[in-house]
Amino acid sequence: MPSIECTISTFAHVHPLLQHCVFGFTHMVASTIPDVPGSVKLQIQRENLLQREMLFEAQGPTTQDQSSEVSEHISIRSRSV
After folding, report:
1. Total structural domains within the chain
2. What is the pTM of this model?
3. Which of 5, 6, 21, 43 has a Cα-to-Cα distance from 69 of 20 to 30 A?
């Protein structure tokens, strides 16, 4: 029959190992689950598009140079979203 000291010593060595395994597993699971659901992300992108369209309409007619400059700015911002 193992002594109590042997059991406590074994537990003291095994516990940190098991603890690190649990922390690693929870980190892996947490990193695979997205913070924002895809449907919410899509809705945010739609709202941003509508805001940009409203800004275009509010600005009124623009020249060709201004129009291309603004569209480049929007395409850069939409890639970062």
Report:
1. 2
2. 0.44
3. 43
